[in-house]
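Document type: protein sequence-to-structure record

Subject area: structural biology

Format: plain text, a pair of labelled lines:
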Amino acid sequence: MNEATLDCRGMACPHPVLKAKEVVDRGDVARFSILVDNPAAKENVSRFLARAGYEVSVSEQGETFEITGNRDATSSPCELPVDAGRAETRTAVLVATEFLGRGDDVLGGKLVVNFIGTLKEMGQDLWRLIFLNGGVKLTIEGSAALNALRELEREGVTILVCGTCLNHFGLLEKKQVGETTNMLDIVTAMQLADKVISMA
């Protein structure tokens, strides 16, 4: 088994995760060290390596994060989990805006909160909620949609929140619900879903 080191400083997500995936896919790397320079990449790479069967540690020097993963020969990669106990029909809802519709943002803000609150009526078919771009603002402290999202999460719906988007809006530390994620996880979730509903 080999060691690998990557320097992904200056790269925005999902590029550090995709670079890490290239190395992990070789299947012969027991120790993996990767340098990144933004919190979203740190979280995304750490989670990816953990899912790939690595024991992960992170150290910080200035603006650089060094993520180290160690894996023994008997460990096997983990895939994006499919929730046990949920229906066979998996519906993912992609939310890429904090407003629903165009014309009046105040009305649009109320409508999107009502939309999220009504998603529970989908029952067991609702599998993933994916938040991108302005949609990530619905997951932060003070959001009127927060209680409904927390209820859905308690009921087993996985909520994925784009880390690059949170970082862009300066909201990474304000997220209150869901899993900070990357484009690789988002694309994988869409691929695994039986149906994708897009609200953009």
Notes: The two ends are 45 Å apart (CA to CA). Residues 91-199 form a domain with the Hypothetical Protein Ychn; Chain: A, fold (CATH 3.40.1260.10). The longest strand covers residues 29-36. Helices lie at 15-24, 39-51, 105-118, 146-154, 163-168, 183-192.
